[in-house]
DNA sequence: ACCGCCTCTGGTCAGCTGTCCAGACTTCTC
DNA sequence: GAGAAGTCTGGACAGCTGACCAGAGGCGGT
């Protein structure tokens, strides 16, 4: 780094403060956008609707975001940060396999119950990435970090159980993601047992992804 | 039914013929709509785009379908018919557990490979049902019939293996659906191994959903 | 040959969407 | 407090969307 003259140092300080305020506002607007997006879904959410629900004018969104894609991309990243942080303590705080299993099942179940709109938005946006290349990179990155998160939990569980995980990281994620998504559909359809089914499904599946060390599976 | 006079019989015959032609045209238009929908996704497909790609005028779609929802609902039903019929022979033609396992894994893998656009549309529309009640009933019906289809295959597998399925019907479907969807994301991201991973994932998961009759699982 | 119904066309309309922008307002610096 | 930079507003615009409709064309029945 080059040593700064007083002027450039002051300018940088100002600039940083402005950048912080700018970033803060972006986050605030993105949070408002997330709220509306999770309510109506990608296809039915316009910038004007977001603005109206957030109390801002629709113009301000174009001041802080290049375009709609830029805004939603930022929202996806925000989602990831909130989501991964929430689960990461499961693996680190546990002291036994059974505790990991219970915590994991409960965490998925309560998240599906409490954050239903946000999760359905995630699946919506992930699907959009199958059609629109704009979101593809960011969605893939979030999906990957979710996959790693699940993998951390499952390998922690396997370590406590003294066993090995038989599936690939990707397949393990896919299995729990499928259970989660089905629970979301169930919740939305008014099936009161959906959350309990998810918890029970996770509890039942988790041990079956392991095999004792040194034994070969039938293949 | 009331006995028909000659006139009403003729009228009915005509009417039936017209109904057939009408239904035929509906199916034809729905097929064209499916093609465009699977290319662009729900959010980015307009009736005019569908019409242009199909060679019809945009007006004709309003003649055969009440509105856009009516059209897409019909498309969903068409999808189901095509999809379920394709898989149903797996369970009925098999003679051993291993054969069911191989056929099932191969069927999922090749379907993901060959019908990628149609499947991503299905997931798109299923997600729309989480936001828009218009599709909810029909989507739920298709999802249920897919669930039953998977269940038939898995129970057939269990029967050949002389074992029981430990998960609920819904959880079994969720697991394979998750694997399938992850493969779709992989394919779209250009991951060449995605199809093979799906096949291998299905092969590995399937036996682990069973337990020997008479033995209790750890719970 | 004529008539009535079915089919289909393409124009029109109101409403919404993303984007841009001129200008008002606020905040900060000197 | 003057000026500049940053922030925000709301109107304007072009393009698109779903829906509607008047009328042309075709087909079958008599």
Structure description:
Two copies of one chain form a homodimer. Chain A is mostly helical. Chain A folds into two domains: 1-65, Orthogonal Bundle (Arc Repressor Mutant, subunit A); 68-219, Tetracycline Repressor, domain 2. Chain A is built from nine helices and two strands. The first copy, chain A, has a two-stranded antiparallel sheet with strand order 1-2. The longest helix of chain A has 35 residues, at 6-40. Chain A is elongated, with a radius of gyration of 21 Å. The model of chain A is unreliable at 1-14 (pLDDT under 50). The structure holds a DNA duplex (30 and 30 nucleotides).
Summarize the structure.
2 copies of one chain form a homodimer. By secondary structure, chain A is mostly helical. In chain A, about 80% of the residues lie in helices and about 5% in strands.
Tell me the Rg of chain A in angstroms: 21 Å
Count of the domains of chain A: 2
The number of helical runs of chain A is 9
Instruction: Give the number of DSSP strands of chain A.
Output: 2
Strand content of chain A: under 5%
As for the CATH topology of the largest domain in chain A, it is: Tetracycline Repressor, domain 2
User: Which two chains share the most extensive interface?
Assistant: A-B, 50 and 50 residues
GO molecular function (chains A, B): DNA binding
Keywords (chains A, B): DNA-binding
Organism (chains A, B): Subtercola boreus
Protein name (chains A, B): TetR family transcriptional regulator
């Amino acid at each position: 780094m080059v040593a700064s003259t007083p002027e450039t140092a002051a300018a940088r300080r100002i600039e940083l403060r402005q950048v912080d305020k700018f970033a803060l506002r972006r986050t605030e607007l993105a949070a408002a956008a997330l709220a509306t997006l999770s309510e109506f879904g990608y296809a039915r959410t316009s910038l004007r609707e977001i603005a109206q629900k957030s109390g801002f004018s629709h113009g301000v969104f174009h001041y802080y975001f290049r375009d709609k894609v830029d805004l939603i991309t930022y929202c996806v990243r925000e989602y990831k940060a909130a989501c991964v942080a929430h689960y990461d303590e499961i693996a680190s705080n546990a002291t036994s396999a059974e505790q990991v299993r219970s915590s994991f099942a409960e965490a998925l179940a309560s998240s599906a119950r409490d954050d239903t709109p946000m999760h359905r938005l995630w699946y919506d946006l992930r699907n959009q990435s199958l059609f629109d290349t704009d979101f593809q990179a960011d969605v893939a990155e979030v999906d990957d970090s979710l996959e790693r998160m699940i993998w951390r939990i499952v390998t922690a569980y396997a370590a406590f159980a003294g066993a090995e995980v038989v599936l690939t990281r990707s397949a393990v994620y896919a299995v729990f993601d499928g259970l989660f998504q089905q629970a979301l559909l169930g919740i939305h359809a008014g099936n009161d047992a959906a959350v309990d089914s998810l918890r029970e499904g996770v509890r039942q599946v988790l041990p079956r992804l392991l095999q004792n060390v040194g034994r070969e599976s039938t293949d």
